[in-house]
Amino acid sequence: MLEEPPILRIRRNFPRPTAAQIDAFRGVPTGFVCDAMNGAGSLDTAIAPIGAATTSGPVVGTAVVAENGPAEILATMAALSIVQAGDILLSAVHGHQGTSACGDLILGMMKNNDLAGFVTDGPMRDIEGIEEVGLPAWCTGLNPNSPYSKGPATVGDGAIVGGQYVCSGDIIVADRSGVVVIPHAKIDATIKALEEVKAAEDAFEAKVKGGAKSFLDLDAMVAEGKAVWID
User: Fold this and answer.
1) What is the CATH number of the domain that holds 132?
2) I want to staple 68 with a disulfide (CB 3.0 to 4.6 A). Which of 72, 78, 106, 174 is the partner?
3) How far is Cα 191 from Cα 40, in angstroms, rounded to an integer?
């Protein structure tokens, strides 16, 4: 007879970004990060800021993925034993909306571990407590139903969260506009591209503040054959 598999698998030693790599994204808006990755990288729009995340600036940290599954919280609970200060814990519940993925007490434990934030593709509960804890969090809304902790669950590996495959060791940048994932293998390339994005944004912002009223030069586009007047 086959033995029952373990209900919990934990990967403790995954590649982590360096402190310098994380620092390169501090204070950077999520829109800039997406532009540096060819306009992509954001999690689904349904994952929105709640509590302190609605007023805080950009938050950045190393992703630690808790693959819970629908209506489960075992992986999130176990992840609290391996996280490091400054990490961002991601709870994957496969987008399940029928139960809470986290409440204020576990969020409080995350704050006690000096995490930078929490992200889930499910709802949370205990909004008053969430606001009191003050740890930035992103979720799909509110639902007071309780999750289970029966497993199976995996910590420290990867999972699909909000339409993106996120691996532990990726960098997360999150603000009031949403949550962006920088894959570990693309961190340095994104940092390099970010400098060009910042320069372009600064130049365009100066034009707008200087009175610019239009983005396109339509007359030039017509002259080049890229556009045509139809009336």
Assistant:
1) 3.50.30.40
2) 72
3) 15
